[in-house]
Structure to design on (526 residues):
C-alpha cells in the first residue's frame, strides 16, 4: 500500500453514507461544525432497502428543509397500509393501516411516508454542502487526548490518507468496522436468518392499483412496490442453493397462478437480518449511531428511523462541545438517553414478526378447515401498530441533560403502541399549532428554545444566558393547560425537541436559565 499522505483535519469524521450518516452531516452543517463523510461504497446504495420514514423522522427532516422533497418523491398516503394475501392475485384476508403514514395524526404536524432508501439518500446528500468521499474505507483509527487519527484508503487506487478529527461518528452499519476496531461487543439475539431481496419489473397494476399497500405479505414471501412510477421487490428467507435459484419462478409463486405477466429480475441481494444493541455507544471520542449501534429486524420500519433519531440527539451535543458552550460530559448523555430507546425498540421489532406469523397461522387454520374463503382476520395489534407511536414519539430521556424540575418523567407503556403527549421534562415537545401553519416544533433549531406565555420576562433571563444559543418564543394562552404552565411559566426545550426543564410559574431567580443551561450542558456558567 502507498504511504499515507498528510491528510486533512476536521471536527467530526462521519463513517458511513447511509441515511444516518447523511442526516448527521446535514445537522452538523446546520450548527456550523466541519464534518467529513466517508463511505466505502463508490456511490449511494442502488437498493431500495428501508421503506418507511415515520413521523418523527419527517419532523427532523422538516427542520432540515427536506421533508417536502421526500414527500414529493414518495408514494401517496393510501400506500400506508399492509395487506395479507395467500398470493398477490388473491383477495385480502387481513389488512392494517400504518398510523401517521396513511393519514395525518393529530400528534404531529407532518405525515410519514412510504418511500425507498435509494430515493431518500440523494435528497439527504443534497441537504448539506460538506465534503463526501465515496469509495473510501476506514481501516484503522487511534485516539489520544486531543482527537482521533483515522487511516482512510481509496478503494480504487489503494492510496492511504490520514485524517485527524476531534470526534468520529460511526454510522457504518451492522457490520461496523469502527465497532470491530474498538472491540465493542453486542447484546441481543444476533443473526436471525439469511434473507434474499429480488428487485424486479412486472405489470402488477391489476392486483394493486385499486388496493394499494406499502407491503403485501403472502405465503410465499413479501412484495413491495418500489417507486410511484413502477418497480417491485420480493423478500423472504433465502432458499436452499441460492446460486442456482430460479428467482423469476420463485417470485411468480408469490404472485399466484392468476398473474400471467413477464417478470424481469433486475438485482438479487442476499443479506442477514440482525438483532442486537451495542454494549457501548461511546468509546472516548468515537460514538456509534444507527445500525452500528443497534440492528433491528425490518418488520415495523423502525431501524433506520431509530438511527435518524440517534443523529438528532447526538449532533447538537457534539456542536456544544466543539463550540465551547458544553462540557465533554454532555456526550455521556448520548448513550444514557439513546441506548435504552434502542433496547426497547429491539424488543418490539423482535416481537413484530411473531405477530405477523399469528395472522398467517390463523389463515392456514382456515384453509386446513376446508374454508378457503378469505374471511377477514383481525390483526393482533391496534391500527397504530405499524407506526408504534409510543416508540416513535414517546421516547423519554433520563440523563444529566434533563432537569426534572417539578415532575419526574414516567416511562411510557412498553407495548410501543400508545402515545400520550405530555410536557414533562425528558419527553418530546408536544405538537401544538401556534398559527395555522406553524407548530411548536417549528420553533426549534440550532438553539435552545424557551416557550412561554410571558416572553418579556423570559427575554430578560435570556439576555444573561450567553454563550448558549437561545431563543424565546411566545406560547398562546390556550396551550397553557396542555403544557401545565401558569401565565408566567416556561418550557426550556433542547435543540432535539426534548424538554429539558419546566417552570410552572415565574423564574425563581434572575439567573434561572443560565444555571439550568449550565447544569444540563455540563459547562461552567460565565
Amino acid at each position: 500500500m502507498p504511504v499515507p499522505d498528510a491528510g486533512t483535519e476536521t471536527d467530526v469524521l462521519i463513517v458511513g453514507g447511509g441515511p444516518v450518516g447523511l442526516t448527521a452531516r446535514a445537522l452538523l452543517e446546520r450548527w456550523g461544525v466541519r464534518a467529513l463523510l466517508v463511505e466505502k461504497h463508490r456511490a449511494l446504495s442502488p437498493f431500495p432497502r428501508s421503506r418507511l420514514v415515520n413521523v418523527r423522522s419527517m419532523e427532523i427532516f422538516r427542520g432540515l428543509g427536506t421533508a417536502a422533497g421526500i414527500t414529493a418523491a414518495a408514494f401517496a398516503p393510501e400506500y400506508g397500509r399492509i395487506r395479507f394475501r395467500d398470493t398477490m392475485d388473491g383477495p385480502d384476508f387481513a389488512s392494517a393501516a400504518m398510523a401517521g403514514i396513511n393519514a395525518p395524526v393529530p400528534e404531529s404536524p407532518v405525515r410519514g411516508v412510504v418511500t425507498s432508501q435509494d430515493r431518500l439518500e440523494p435528497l439527504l446528500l443534497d441537504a448539506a454542502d460538506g465534503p463526501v468521499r465515496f469509495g473510501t474505507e476506514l481501516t484503522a483509527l487511534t485516539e489520544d487526548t486531543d482527537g482521533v487519527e483515522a487511516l482512510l484508503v481509496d478503494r480504487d487506487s489503494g492510496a492511504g490518507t490520514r485524517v485527524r478529527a476531534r470526534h468520529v461518528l460511526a454510522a457504518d452499519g451492522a457490520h461496523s468496522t469502527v465497532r470491530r476496531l474498538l472491540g465493542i461487543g453486542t447484546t441481543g439475539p444476533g443473526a436471525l436468518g439469511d434473507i434474499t431481496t429480488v428487485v424486479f419489473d412486472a405489470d402488477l397494476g391489476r392486483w394493486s392499483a385499486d388496493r394499494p399497500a406499502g407491503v403485501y405479505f403472502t405465503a410465499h414471501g413479501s412484495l413491495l412496490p418500489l417507486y410511484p412510477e413502477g418497480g417491485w421487490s420480493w423478500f423472504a428467507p433465502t432458499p436452499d442453493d441460492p446460486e442456482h435459484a430460479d428467482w423469476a419462478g420463485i417470485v411468480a409463486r408469490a404472485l399466484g397462478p392468476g398473474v400471467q405477466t413477464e417478470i424481469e429480475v433486475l438485482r438479487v441481494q442476499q443479506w442477514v437480518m440482525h438483532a442486537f444493541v451495542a454494549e457501548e455507544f461511546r468509546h472516548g471520542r468515537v460514538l456509534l449511531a444507527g445500525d452500528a449501534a443497534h440492528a433491528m429486524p425490518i418488520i415495523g420500519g423502525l431501524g433506520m428511523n431509530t438511527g435518524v433519531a440517534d443523529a438528532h440527539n447526538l449532533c447538537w451535543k457534539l456542536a456544544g462541545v466543539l463550540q465551547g458552550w458544553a462540557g465533554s460530559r454532555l456526550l455521556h448523555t448520548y448513550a444514557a438517553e439513546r441506548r435504552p430507546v434502542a433496547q426497547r425498540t429491539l424488543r418490539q421489532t423482535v416481537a413484530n414478526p411473531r405477530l405477523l406469523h399469528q395472522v398467517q397461522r390463523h389463515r392456514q387454520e382456515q384453509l386446513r378447515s376446508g374454508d378457503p374463503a378469505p374471511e377477514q382476520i383481525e390483526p393482533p395489534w391496534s391500527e397504530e401498530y405499524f407506526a408504534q407511536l409510543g416508540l416513535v414519539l414517546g421516547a423519554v430521556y433520563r440523563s444529566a441533560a434533563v432537569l426534572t424540575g417539578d415532575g419526574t418523567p414516567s416511562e411510557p407503556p412498553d407495548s410501543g403502541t400508545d402515545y400520550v403527549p405530555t410536557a414533562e421534562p425528558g419527553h418530546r415537545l408536544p405538537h401544538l399549532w401556534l398559527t395555522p401553519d406553524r407548530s411548536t416544533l417549528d420553533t426549534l433549531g440550532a438553539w435552545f428554545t424557551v416557550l412561554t406565555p410571558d416572553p418579556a420576562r423570559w427575554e430578560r433571563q435570556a439576555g444573561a444566558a450567553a454563550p448558549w444559543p437561545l431563543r424565546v418564543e411566545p406560547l398562546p394562552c390556550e396551550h397553557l393547560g396542555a403544557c401545565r404552565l401558569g401565565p408566567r411559566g416556561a418550557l426550556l426545550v433542547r435543540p432535539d425537541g426534548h424538554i429539558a426543564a419546566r417552570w410552572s410559574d415565574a423564574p425563581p431567580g434572575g439567573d434561572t436559565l443560565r444555571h439550568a443551561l449550565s447544569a444540563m450542558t455540563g459547562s461552567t456558567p460565565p
